[in-house]
Write a sequence for this structure.
């Protein structure tokens, strides 16, 4: 909302017109704010995804070995998704 308010203030106080440099400030503030919000939402989603996957893969079993296996599978899946998101492509499933 702040970039809209900032741009409105710039336009309201402009007598003869607005140059591109006059709009840099509000757009910069808005861009930084959106980037920070996107980063926070992305990190929250990744944290919840790992937590849910770990819970699903590790639930219903009482043995430590099962928990460790679930942790390894979750970490491997998280790393694979991170590589795919970074442009590395989606890895092929491992042969059983």
């Amino acid at each position: 909302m702040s970039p809209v308010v900032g741009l409105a203030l710039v336009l309201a106080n402009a007598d003869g017109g607005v140059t591109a440099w006059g709009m840099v400030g509000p757009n910069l503030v808005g861009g930084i704010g959106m980037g920070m919000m996107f980063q926070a939402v992305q990190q929250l989603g990744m944290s919840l995804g790992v937590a849910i996957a770990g819970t699903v893969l590790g639930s219903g079993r009482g043995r430590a070995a099962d928990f460790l296996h679930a942790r390894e599978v979750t970490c491997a899946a998280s790393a694979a998704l991170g590589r795919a998101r970074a442009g590395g492509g989606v890895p092929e499933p491992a042969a059983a």
